[in-house]
Amino acid sequence: MKYVEFDRSRPMDIVLLGRVAIDFNPAYNDQVKEEFKPLKKVHMFEKFVGGSPANIAVGVTRHGLKAGFIGKVSDDQFGEYVVDYFNEQGIDTTHVTKCTGGQKLGLTFTEMLSPSESSILMYRNCIADLQLSVDDINEDYIKNTKALLISGTSLAESPSREAAIKAMMLAKKNGTVLIFDIDYRAYNWKNKDEISVYYSIIAKEADIIMGSREEFDLTEKLIQPGMTDEQSAAYWHGRNAKIVVIKHGMKGSTAYTCDGQKFSIKPFPVEARKGFGGGDGYGAGFLYGLYNGWELLDCLEFGSAEASMMVRSNNCSDDLPGPDAVRAFIREEKEKYGEMVARV
Ligand SMILES: Nc1ncnc2c1ncn2[C@@H]1O[C@H](COP(=O)(O)OP(=O)(O)O)[C@@H](O)[C@H]1O
Ligand SMILES: [Mg+2]
Prior knowledge:
10 helices; alpha/beta; 22% strand; 4-stranded mixed β-sheet; single chain; binds magnesium ion; globular; binds adenosine-5'-diphosphate
């Protein structure tokens, strides 16, 4: 069954709004291998485009979807680096603009301690992406895309907060499918009540909500704390959601649909390099399946496979695979571990 209908007449498949940053990851390439170690001991870093919605934009583009980005970058070489990278990938950058007040792109340093232990150190003061303002949101752009994905990080501060809400309102006005990736990053938020206030404004209107259990708990703090996954799904289905995806990291994830069904998937076993980047591969793979009208379980399997491929990688953007590579990965894993390896 199809839970969301995309308007096929629209030229753009998906527009993503929010955070784009630069990741500095401990180098791991043919020349330099920084093995697992504390961040302070790392000597060589590799630079990549990062930030959850930016990574998903790259991911869906590698699958052949036409993506655009709404965001703010710094007026310097790092800002140019991001825009150049997006352009090389084929992502539309007509709505990526430069900050005028000297704000800088966020920098993310990833610590990789072991296959199961990693953390991130973010530099997000005077931050470019949160400078997005209502004037940057153009109705025609939202009218011409099948879906709009809002990353929750964009709600952390004004003026980006109002810009994201405006984009959501225009998506509703124009029948654009609204996807909410809760994408919680602690930086820039002032307190937990604000998180619930603003996350729930978008979540109530979204057709698809994706997030971890912790991210749903933050969203629901002022609604009803302590809900189970089933209760959360029922609550959001009672608003506008058709699909609610709740992730439990290594324990797997479940998509709840508005007809009362649920579909679960587990991660494909891999030797991880880091815990980050999984969610973005998951999002890109899952959305690709949805656009192709696949059964939900196949969308989830594809997303989970892409997530596993990305936690194995040293970055969150540049190694995002095309569809053939994901299919090959699924085939290999099933040959190794059996047909039901990712099934619950
Ligand atoms: N060690 C791992 N091996 C395989 N898959 C993993 C691993 N860690 C995470 N994943 C996958 O990545 C997803 C994480 O998504 P999410 O909770 O959104 O985290 P983030 O957005 O921080 O990457 C999980 O649902 C799972 O599919
Ligand atoms: Mg995530």
